[in-house]
Amino acid sequence: MTGRLHTHFIAVAVLLLLAGCIPVGAPENSSGLQAITPVPTLDMNNLRSLCQGADDYWERNWPLAIQALEGLRALDGDCGWETPLTDRLYGAYVTYGELLEARNRRDEAIAAYEAAQSYNIQGYEATAGLQRLNVYTPAAPSTCASGQATSAQALVQPYRPTQGAFVQIHESGFRVDGQPFPVYGVVYYPLATPYERFMTTYDAESINQELDLMREAGLNTLRVRLRHEVLFTCPGNGAVPIPDAFARLDALILAAADKGFRLILTLNDAPDLETFPLYDSPRHTVEQIVYLTSRYREEPALLAWDLREGGDSDYLQGRAERREVLEWLVETAVLVRRVDTNHLITATWGDDAEAALPAVDFLSFQHFGSVDALRQRIAVLTATTDKPILLGAAGYSTYESDERTQADTLRQALDAATNNALAGWLVWTAFDFPLTATCIEPACPSPDSPDHHFGLWNTSYFPKLAVEAIQMETDEN
Fold first, then answer.
1. Rounded distance, CA 183 to CA 264, Å?
2. How many CB atoms lie within 10 A of CB 74?
3. Domain boundaries along the sequence of the chain
4. Closest CA to 42 of 14, 76, 70
5. 3-class DSSP assignment, residue 45
6. DSSP assignment of 226-292, as one string?
7. Given this model, what pLDDT does residue 33 score?
8. What is this structure's pTM?
9. What is the CATH number of domain 155-476?
10. Can you spell out the DSSP letters for 430-475?
11. What is the DSSP letter of 25?
């Protein structure tokens, strides 16, 4: 839906926008709307004042009642009401939307109904209001049977973090315990379970073998891309973890940490951009982000949260508006920082990576073109920011060229990153993917393509010449 507001993050801003449209001094009228001052009169940091305001303004002044309720939500306040705060917010937004709709204030009514949906996507009243205004509303996300969500959460074992120092920024790079930490890494998928199969099964023996191969080559960092639909179920209930999937993710993090790796965890890989669009900040997606960042906020092996893989491609290829993507990025960075104060934040983007600068602690970009183009790109980025810059993915396939060409080109690319004092680099990817590992039944195996041949090791775990290039690069630095 074009122009939909990110109601989960900016409901108070929506409220003030709506309130500002009511003329100062306008008399009370039959619509039920009343005049208000454009200057907020509530103490947004005083729980008692907000509780009193929510009660006093209920059914008398919906904008101020909503502002008080949103203030309570921000403070995680409890006024002792029997009705949950989210239900009161839903009801307030719906009623205000109906009053706005009766006065033919269509855009404001839509914003109010959408704000209501952020608190109850299944709410009939908000959905009906949007449908009356000819606004498309998707079917409600699927929910769990009674008690299933609670049972799923109970089955997920608490995560027990490892010990050690967290990664910090120092000048144009990273450091750990006062020592420089240049990133030498890969974007990692297990050979047999890449993409959507990642976290659906776990072969501890194979993964430990892969971690050993990568560590012996001198690599010290893994970027792991997380798909929410693999980790969570029943989105209508918010963040409902899949116990087996989180057991696998926990095991991977702990195994990697044990072997000396740092990890960059990429949130929102391959997200929903149509039914419940990521950039509208649907409630279940926000709660899933909070769940993940809360679960691993004490893990020192985690180097950073990567908020979105290739977010700039969403607007460069017309799947979303640039403004809404960048607003979402800033809002999500604020959310993650509120939950987790230990870890750095980045976003691994491509051609428009510098657009992410206001939201991130360090800049990450991907490059799959020529080395000359990479050098030019690095020159532009280093002139744009003093923040550390990480080459978040670079790779070359052996599908249409030989191993020597891959190795030489990759070595030149990594030299370009090192010689220009970047914070480090990551290679796409560690292993070639078998044709049977990237297909979904019954369309198996997948057709062969360059995507299957970017690995440093082939499908038999035999090292390509590129592994020698990696070892030379890490040994020299």
1. 11
2. 13
3. 7-132, 155-476
4. 70
5. coil
6. --HHHHEE-GGGS-EE-HHHHHHHHHHHHHHHHTT-EEEEEPSSS--SSSS-GGG--HHHHHHHHHH
7. 42
8. 0.77
9. 3.20.20.80
10. SB---TTTS--TTS-SPPP-GGGG--SB-TTSPBPHHHHHHHHHHH
11. T
- Secondary structure letter of residue 420 according to DSSP: T
User: What distance in Å separates the CA atoms of residue 94 and residue 109, rounded to the nearest whole number?
Assistant: 9
Pairing mode of beta strands 232-233, 240-241: antiparallel
Which of the four CATH numbers 1.10.10, 1.25.40, 1.10.730, 1.20.1740 does domain 7-132 have? Answer: 1.25.40
Look at residue 146 in the predicted model and tell me its pLDDT.
66
What confidence tens digit (pLDDT) does each residue in 105-120 have? 999 999 999 999 888 8
Residues of the chain with pLDDT under 70: 1-41, 122, 137, 146
What the block records as the tokens of 168 is 């910090």
For residues 457 and 431, is the Cβ–Cβ distance under 8 A?
yes
Distance CA 76, CA 66 (A): 15
Whose tokens are 């952020």? That residue is 118
From residue 358, how far is each of 5, 168, 314, 320 by CA, in Å? 20, 18, 18, 19
| Angle, CA of 378, 380 and 381, to the nearest 5° | 65
- Predicted local distance difference test score (pLDDT) of residue 41: 65
Q: If DSSP codes are grouped into helix, strand and coil, which group holds residue 88?
A: helix
